[in-house]
Amino acid sequence: MPKPLAPKPAQYEIIDQFSVNYNWNGSPIVLQPNDNANIPQTPNGSVILAWFNQSTQNNRGTLSLTSGGSAPQFLDAPALYSQPFILMNNWLGNNLSVTNISAVTATPIWVALYGPGIPGIYPQKLPPDGTVVSLATLATAQGTALPRWMQLKLNCSSGSFAVFAIIGGPNGPNGNGYVIALNAATNTGPGTGVAPPAGYYATTIDNSYSLQFNWGSSTVFVASMLATTTLGATVALVSL
């Protein structure tokens, strides 16, 4: 009788094995497969993790994300996309460890943390007088709201899908971040009766969206998470 085949040993990816930066400060970095970057302490408030698969081949990528003693969260990084992927979260001052666990070696993934005061991020000025500020892909703007009702105007007149990530105001149970998409397929979020997609505050089929708030005299931070082919994105901060 033929001998039974011995079971093959399980295959594992050892997360954080080939660390390239144990003291990452959140500024843009490119992780090759099995490379790791770790922020020792994140802000105790909403921040934006952005990533982008830089492979010129059709190599699907994957990131592993851990914070504190949490189980790994796996983030998809599809190939050949011209738009960054984002995750808005409050990691409560814990560390944040990101590892490229892509299966193919030729899968470099660009990652960066976005938020007020994050090193390597240089926001344009966003005055509270209605000045229109143009934003390219991954560009940011930051200003100080007046202690009154304000309106943040987002616009993308080209009709292309556009994503804006906003940080500001009081810290709630889910942080103080808002992800809003323009020129989307459906209207969702406050005032629509339709729950927004996971991770979003609102989506609109229109070219523009206005966010009204009264956060006192506080910082307002806006990051443009557009596709590189998207043109015509702007933001303005207006007092009401």
The major β-sheet equals: 6 strands, mixed
Question: Quick one: how many beta strands?
Answer: 19
- How much helix, percentage-wise, in residues? under 10%
What oligomerization state is this entry in?
A: single chain
| Average pLDDT reading | 90
Shape: globular
Strand portion: 35-45%
CATH-level-2 architecture of the largest domain = Sandwich
Radius of gyration: 20 Å
What ranges have pLDDT less than 50 throughout 5 or more consecutive residues?
1-14
What order do the helices and strands follow?
EEEEEEEEEEEEEEEEEEE
The top level CATH class name of the largest domain? Mainly Beta
CATH topology of the largest domain: Jelly Rolls
Span between termini: 86 Å
Give, in spatial order, the strands making up the sheet with the most strands: 10-12-18-14-15-16
Number of helices: 0
How many domains make up the coordinates? 2
Structural class: mainly beta
